[in-house]
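Sanity check

After download, print the first record. It should look like this:
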Amino acid sequence: FRKLYEGLWFLRFQILWIGGVILINEALEVFKKIYDKEGEELVVSKHIPKDGTYILVNIESGKIIENLNIAYDKKNKKIDGEYNQYYSYIRAFDYYSNLVEMNKSMDQKKTIHSNQIYSFFVKKESIRENKLTKAIIEGYKKNLLNPEEKYNSREGKELYKNIANKLPEIEKDTVEKIFSWIETNVNEDLLEDNKKDYLKIFFVESDLDISLELFKNEHKRYLIPNIFNSNDYNRKIGETIYGASNNNMGLNPKKVYLLNRTRRVSTPYLVDTEEILLQYAFYNYLLPEVKQGNYFIYFTENEIIPKTYKDACPNGARYLLNATYSKDVDIKNFNIISKSDSQEISINFREILHQKRKDSDEIEYGNLNREKIMNNINKILFYNSLLGNFLASDGDLDIKDIEIKKLLMKYRNAFYKWFYLNDETEVKKSIKKIYLDAVMVAIENGHLFKANQQLDLGFCLEEYFYKKSELMEEIMNIKEIFLNHTLSEEDWDFLNDEEYFFAVGQVLAYINYMRNSKAKSLNFIKQLTFIKNPTILKEKIKKIIISYSHIFETKNKKINRTISNISLYQPKEIKIDILLAGFTADIVFFKKREEK
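Expected structure tokens:
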């Protein structure tokens, strides 16, 4: 059974993985159109250098041309140093000098983090702690001068030769000048602060445009042999080399479950060099976007539109790619948008049950567009836990209240589809259950005003989806009948179960208002929601009323008549939703005739 389970799990993984690749290829087609038109500048212009000190050194004179501190302000999404005259060159030099990943460093000790002779990247603490030794620098230099020796596999050597034949040879005199400068100057005297960020040095010609071409060439020399996941998986078919992608998937000896041992080629998906270079550019394009919190990447036919979770689906979007960032781009999912044009929505959110607003209340009322109703749903139904948690796994949800967490896990996918994929089907079908479940959570937490807002919002959402809210109309009708009864000087009886349960809710709301307690637990309401038998429920309500009988005003005819009728009436069905509406609505026992 265990082998069968493992086999089925692997088959499921293969189907999901290949399906994901096919879908992402749709996004790659859009990216390719733009990339073919704009070239590498499309990606380079978005690149965000890591925090650190960036130094330009003239190769011939050895003089420092510029010393620039760069830092990314995550809060304001601004880059300190971006207005420097050399910034655009430094950004490009940095892009072309970065490693594919740390395991593919040109320094076997992984102390030096650059990939070519014209750049030298090191953490400042490596200099302060004397980790940057002469032996490490010599090893780095040797690998740069003799890359074919570093790539010890036949496949790696073949990849290197293919690209090396197309590039100019490395000038050893230039290399000697560069490393002579490094050995003389890279020490603590070069450090101007005690930060634990990077020191990055670029060795350039007087003409920076010439240097940019040199950087590009050396970037190709490093990139091609290192771009595949592992050259051990490479296969040559004709003159084309195929290999395993390194993007959004780990494949190494420790993750053998990704290999399909029943096939001649055991790797799940192979791509050629042209496609993997496109993927590399694509992931580098995504990287600065997700670093800035743009986890929602929309694709139209000819455009890529990055958005945050606060923004709704833009018009014309055909696909949505969700990605997050830890150490690299992590693609969470990819969806097709069935309706490419977002319908302009206007939802009239208003007070219906008429609880007084709090002065500190930041909820918006009136005719609300999609973004504003998203904010209200997030604040009112989900306690500000919905919008920021669409991409988190259930285990990563940092929500202390277990009931709010359950509510989120149950319904967030429905709202994801509505907000970001223009698919309201699931929310529309479940809207009544959604807001009533939210009300139950609010009642459990003792949040009476929140429960009132949740019902109001739920009614208004129902009106939007179905042109009317039957529950709201029923409650408003019952409320009017009950108010007329309580204001009447004559005896009266409940007309139906609905009025009975609304009246019970009003009496319980009166009890909650009058009892002398700072921390007012609403558990006496919650316990009623579990009872399924009307007779047992009536008996339970009677016990609650008796236990709080000391708080009722003997002269208040309205409430005395209501309690009398509650004791005489026998409900046929349980209407908990009506009871909750009566409990959260304004209390009619305080109303005078002239206020009607």
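If your output differs, re-run the checksum step. Summary of this record's structure: The longest strand covers residues 64-73.
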